[in-house]
Amino acid sequence: MSVSMDDEAKPPRVLIIAGSDSGGGAGIQADIKTVTVLGGFAMTAITAITAQNTCEVAEVEAIEPWLIQRQIEVVLSDLGADVIKTGMLPTRGAVKAVAASLGSHSVPLVVDPVLVATSGGRLAESDVARALLMDLIPRASLVTPNLPEAEALSGVHIECREDFERAADTLLTTGVGAVLIKGGHLPGDTICDLLRTADGEQVWFEDERIVTRSTHGTGCTLASAIATNLGEGHTLSHAVRLAREYVRQAMLAAPGFGNGHGPLNHAFACRAGATSP
Questions:
Q1: 44, 197, 220, 231: the active-site residue
Q2: Is 96 marked active-site?
Q3: What is the DSSP letter of 118?
Q4: How far apart are CA 22 and CA 181, in angstroms?
Q5: Predicted pLDDT of residue 1
Q6: Among 32, 59, 66, 171, which lies 20 to 30 A Cα-Cα from 47?
Q7: What letter does residue 259 receive in the DSSP assignment?
Q8: DSSP state of 216
Q9: Which sequence spans correspond to the domains of the chain?
Q10: Are 99 and 137 a contacting pair, CB within 8 Å?
């Protein structure tokens, strides 16, 4: 007897609002791979087209804000979403279009405030950080800045755990539900990330640093994994814990492509579980 999707749990619907990475390691490409591998159904609204590889971001072409907004509205009006994740928003107009298009939708919103690519290429105009703080982060369930992004958004220079906490508290004053500050840019053999929530929960995540150049798209991948886990019904702290482990395993299984910061292997679990015919 065949079993229809109506007879079993449906996958969480994850709407990803982000830019395209022609190298396939970050952006929409990484988001779709992550959501799919983790059992979600990925939908997209493209905010920019980039010409990039593991070494550089050669070109960025921003999508007109009205078309970004239209993509979001058309998807939500039919398919709906259980969770929404934003990544690269290249202009202030793009940020405002996203905020306007979300309207009264109350599903969890994960904001990855992408400002600079792993290769060092700038992916957003200079006024985007302020627009994020004013228009999008306050309505988010979670914002996931790396250290440079957290410093840019909070104005706090981060060197120690107390600085993590001060930066997180500053961002929480915007009204965001929770802040995950990723500490991978700090030197040392241990990577520390801080999750701090508006209701007082605080969790430190610590792991041994993986020495690899395959780090392209780690932020996109982490945020999409967290979003998918939230869509599955996990608590925030557990969603973050599962997502961090997924990223670490994808890094360890990285294919070693490219001459710069290479991509992860998002499908490592699928290959590991594959059987020969």
A1: 220
A2: no
A3: T
A4: 27
A5: 42
A6: 171
A7: S
A8: B
A9: 12-267
A10: no
CA–CA separation, 179 vs 177, rounded Å? 7
Helix (H, G, I), strand (E, B) or coil at 230: helix
User: Active site includes 220?
Assistant: yes
Check residue 184 and give its pLDDT: 85
Provide the token pair at 48.
């920019």
Task: Look at residue 274 in the predicted model and tell me its pLDDT.
Answer: 46
> In one letter, which amino acid is 245?
E
Choosing from 54, 144, 215, 221, the catalytic residue is 215
Label residue 184 exposed, middle or buried (CB < 10 Å: 0-12, 13-18, 19+): middle
Active site residue 173: no
Of these residues, 219, 231, 260, 262, which one is catalytic? 219
- Nearest-angstrom CA–CA distance, 234 and 236: 6
Task: Answer yes or no: are the C-beta atoms of 176 and 226 closer than 8 Å.
Answer: no
Statement: the pTM of the whole predicted model exceeds 0.85: yes
Helix and strand numbers (H, E) in the chain are 9, 9
Tell me which residue has tokens 């309207």: 103
User: Which among 27, 217, 260, 262 is annotated as catalytic?
Assistant: 217
Low-confidence residues of the chain: pLDDT under 50 = 1-3, 7, 273-277
Answer whether 151's CB lies under 8 Å from 174's CB.
no
pLDDT given for residue 126 in this prediction: 73
- Specify the CATH architecture of the domain 12-267: 3-Layer(aba) Sandwich (3.40)
Is 182 marked active-site?
yes
Q: Quick: pLDDT tens for 214-254.
A: 999 999 999 999 999 999 999 999 999 999 999 999 999 99
- Residue 116: its pLDDT value, please? 64
Catalytic residue of the set 144, 174, 218, 228: 218
Cα–Cα distance between 139 and 257 in angstroms, integer? Answer: 37
